[in-house]
Amino acid sequence: MRKTAVVLLAAFVSVGLVAGHAFAFSCPTLVKAANDAIAKAEPGAAKATDDKQKARNAGLIEEAKDLVKGAEAAHAAGSHGRSEAKAHAAKALAEMVK
Questions:
Q1: Could you report the per-residue pLDDT of 32-51, keeping only the tens digit for each?
Q2: Which of 13, 24, 55, 91 could cysteine-pair with 34, CB 3.0–4.6 Å?
Q3: pLDDT in tens, 3-42
Q4: Is 38 within 8 Å of 93 (Cβ atoms)?
């Protein structure tokens, strides 16, 4: 009985260690996606003919870049939830550029 309990405990610990990687935070991937969205939006932002739209686009891109910097800083500080939220917000802002 005791031997079975030890084997089961070892199996649970092994599964937990392997499965831990599946639940890891994906901050770097989200930051990369946000940077890609910003890079895609920048050429289109400059092509706007209306001055008001150009200013709006520039503001959105600037704010998105600031959020990416904040996401990278939060990731480095270990605040992965905040990092992911900022990266998602940066990507969303970049995708709003017309």
A1: 999 999 999 999 888 888 88
A2: 91
A3: 654 454 455 555 444 444 444 579 999 999 999 999 999 9
A4: no
Let me know: does 68 contact 32? Beta carbons within 8 Å. no
Per the CB < 8 A criterion, the answer to whether 90 and 71 are in contact is yes
- Sign for the pseudo-dihedral over CA of 66, 68, 69, 75: positive
**What does DSSP assign to residue 21?**
G
Secondary structure of residue 1 in the 3-state scheme: coil
Of residues 65, 50, 66, 32, the one with CA closest to residue 98: 50
Question: Is 39 in a helix, a strand, or coil?
Answer: helix
Whether the CB-CB separation of 2 and 43 falls below 8 Å is answered with no
CB atoms within 10 A of CB 71: 28
Q: Which residues contact 61 (CB under 8 A, 6 or more apart)?
A: 38, 41, 42, 45, 93, 94, 97
